[in-house]
Amino acid sequence: RMLAASTDLSKVIGEGIRNNSPSDKIAADAYRSIWSQTTRGQRDFQAFGGDFLMAQNVNILRGFFSAFFRVDLPIWGGFLAGWPGLPGNIHHETWDRRLLFALNLFTKMSNEVRLAMMTYAVKHTATFGPNLLLRSLTPPFLFGSGPLDYEWVPPSTTTGDEEAKAEARRMIQEFEKRLHSTDKAPSEAVDSNESVKEIQKEEELVMAGEVLDMFPAPFN
Q1: How sure is the predictor about 56, in pLDDT bands with cuts at 50, 70 and 90?
Q2: Pick from 19, 45, 13: which is nearest to 31 by CA?
Q3: What distance in Å separates the CA atoms of residue 75 and residue 98, rounded to the nearest whole number?
Q4: N or C: which end of the chain has fewer CB within 10 A?
Q5: Is 57 exposed, middle or buried (0-12, 13-18, 19+ CB in 10 A)?
Q6: What's the rounded Cα separation, in Å, for the pair 199 and 197?
Q7: Nearest CA-CA partner of 12 in 31, 35, 30
Q8: 146: left (phi over 0), alpha (psi -120 to 50) or beta
C-alpha cells in the first residue's frame, strides 16, 4: 500500500521541485495526492473494521474471519489491499461498493458476530459521530463527502495590524507638525511641565509606532 501511494506522491513532489514551488505548496499537494476524499472514505471504513476487531474476544474474532474468508477472493483481497490501483480495490473505492461488501459479509456471519458488530457500530458512531462509518457507507447527500481536498493558499503579503499602523503614522505626522510649528515660533515654545510631559508621551507613542512596523502579525 505504501509503495502504491508513493508513485503519485513522488510525482507531485518532483513537479513541485521542478517548478520551484514553495515548500508549503509542495507539502499540501503531496498530502492531497495521498488523502483525497476517495481514499479518506475508504480508510474510514477500514479503520472501523480494525477498531472493531481489536475490541473483540477470541471467539468473535474466529467467527468474523470465518465469515470474511467465505467472501469471494477478489473482494476480501481488495479490502486487504486497500489502495487505488491495487488488485481488487475496485470493490471498495465507492460508498455503494463498500456497502455491498458489508452486507455480503454480514450475511455470512453468525448471530453472535452480527450482534457484536452492530453493538460496536452504535458505540463507534455515538463516540465519533456519523462522519466516519456512516459517511463511508452512504451517499454524499446524507452525511456529505468529508472535508474538501486540501488546497494550498499563498500567505498574505500584509504583515501586522494595518489599522494600528495607520493610526501610529497619523500620530507621527501630527507630532512632526507640532515640532515644526514650535521651531518656527520660538516665542511659543513649550515652557510648562505639563506641556513637556505631553510631548514626551507623544514621543513614546511615535517610538511604539516605529517598533510596530518591525514585527509581523502574530506579535502585534
Answers
A1: very high
A2: 13
A3: 10
A4: N
A5: exposed
A6: 5
A7: 30
A8: left
Query: What is the rounded distance in angstroms from the CA atom of residue 157 to the CA atom of residue 152?
Result: 15
How far is residue 4's CA from residue 13's CA, in Å, rounded to a whole number?
Answer: 15
Residue count (the chain): 220
Confidence (pLDDT) at 115: 96
For residue 213 the three cell numbers come to 512596523
Q: pLDDT by residue (tens digit) across 78-89? A: 999 888 888 888
Q: What is the pTM of this model?
A: 0.61
* Amino acid identity at 7: T
pLDDT tens-digit profile of 91-136?
998 999 999 999 999 999 999 999 999 999 999 999 988 888 888 8
- Burial of 132 (C-beta count, 10 Å sphere; 0-12/13-18/19+): buried
> How many angstroms separate the CA atoms of 109 and 102, rounded?
11
